[in-house]
């Protein structure tokens, strides 16, 4: 086993882990506020990648503007969905939210498979981040380093915004007791819509970041959704930090297993999930509800 | 706040009469259908209907919504196909082997999954089913992408040649009907009543001294076994067990059938299966993307039609009836 291959896989694992983290972070925020597990989160990740690709393909807008524009587009789609469809199930059993968003996921993914097929569309590395550095023990492609840095900054930035700022305090308060927070004159529905848009935009950014590493494929959302769900189960609903840490660690563990026993790499997350459920059913960072 | 799950009450004699009527009509249709419709299509439909009934047993009994029921369906399908083709098992034994495999999977998945309920239960079953999918992809006997093909149907009890489509159809119909009666029996039994009580108020049942987890687990395993029977039967009927059988879209399809027909109603899943399978067949023929249509139906049901077809029907006939009796007595 060469060190190059080991560290290469670990890096890829870290990247996957940061995508898991960003998606499950979005899930955790939306769940905390609305009690809805947004199964469409995977579709928004895919939309992020596709919007970036479409911007490049049809209008000729490059990676850097797309990194901002595509997530905004994704957030707009998400907010429209939230305002027109998803808000109708807030007062119902939470399972209806899951079923509804699963339906939305099917529609979005189905449309893109119908339009673009299941083979991926290539997306080039952005100019300025091609090539890489040889660190001695491994070859570090510049783009991958950038992805790791950006996603970790974004994850912890979100954590900071929620735990340490005034807006975050409103958000957390609205999670605990929305009626009381409204009585204080804070516009909770607006807050909810903002949080939903933010959670969805995180998935969109992850999608754009993923586009040059993996191809832009309509099925990419479905493929990442199940590991993200497992991450949420393992981390437990309740802690934003839990979502970030669990996502990153599981990604790295998955990378590890790819080196030593590739056949089992898809199973690692599920095996960990099973162990966690048996030992600590509420999840590693979860609170007893 | 809870899910709209149709409530069964064994004592309601009026809806009981209605049910007997519906069942009698159902049996007549079951017997007459292959003279009108292609029997192989009907076999597939009945297997999916049985699968939907098994799923419904879980949600109607315990209020647990599984997102990974394809694992048991496909697990049964693979084992039945493998034993029938490679080990030369006769028809009955292959079915039993499939059911045994699904039961085994059900025990493992059940012990893990019933530790949580509601949303987390759904996500855990989804993840477990994904694990089974990867197993099916990796294990050598499943032939990954190709699946197990050309599974022989064999003979029923060594006497009836099942290569004949009509013979195979009636055997399938009989097994489906027995499965349906089993679900009905379970629901109307004291066991089923305890399950509904657990669904309504789990803590009270615990404090009354019921071993709640054991009840849930038994129901889960029963549902898995029945799903395995549906899968086994399907793989022998169609001579095919593939990755599709264990894949997520199959779990979504069965969810749709039960939602569309009416969760927790006895006939609902059958009605849902008839509509869904026919729709799949029709849409695939005219080139409309099936997942999009399925997704739109999902959204539609959740927003305006949560009781499902049979559920809404029962709800309104019941209301009509109570109104009328109120007028009479008042």
What does this structure look like?
- Chain A has helices spanning 3-34, 41-59, 63-84, 94-116, 142-164, 166-176, 178-183, 188-210, 220-235, 240-260, 268-279, and strands spanning 132-134, 139-141.
- Chain A has 289 residues and is mainly α.
- Chain A has one domain (3-225).
- The termini of chain A are far apart.
- The mean pLDDT of chain A is 86.
- Chain B is globular.
- In chain B, strand 2 and strand 3 (160-161) form a beta hairpin.
- In chain B, strands 1-4 form a two-stranded antiparallel ribbon. Chain B has a two-stranded antiparallel ribbon with strand order 2-3.
- Chain A binds chain B through residues 37, 85, 88-89, 91-96, 98-100, 102-111, 113-114, 222, 226, 229-230, 232-233, 237, 263, 266-267, 269-271, 273-274, 277-278, 281, and chain B through 1-3, 65, 112, 115-116, 118-120, 122-124, 126-128, 130-131, 134-135, 138, 248, 252, 255, 259, 289-292, 294-299, 302-303, 306.
Features:
heterodimer, A: 289 residues, mainly alpha, two-stranded antiparallel ribbon, 2 strands, 72% helix, B: 330 residues
Low-pLDDT residue spans of chain B: 9-13
Helix count of chain A equals 11
Structural class of chain A: mainly alpha
Q: What is the share of helical residues of chain B?
A: over 70%
Number of distinct beta strands of chain A? 2
The ordered H/E elements of chain B are HHHHHEEEHHHHEHHHHH
- Sum up the overall morphology of chain A in one term: globular
Low-confidence stretches of chain A: none
What is the subunit organization of this protein?
heterodimer
Kindly report how far apart the N and C termini of chain A lie: 45 Å
Q: If interface size is counted as residues with C-beta under 8 Å from the partner's C-beta, which chains form the largest one? A: A-B, 43 and 38 residues
Q: Largest sheet of chain B, if any?
A: 2 strands, antiparallel
Helix content of chain A: over 70%
Largest sheet of chain A: 2 strands, antiparallel
The tally of structural domains of chain A comes to: 1
Structural class of chain B: mainly alpha
The SSE string of chain A, one letter per element, is: HHHHEEHHHHHHH
Distance between the termini of chain B: 32 Å
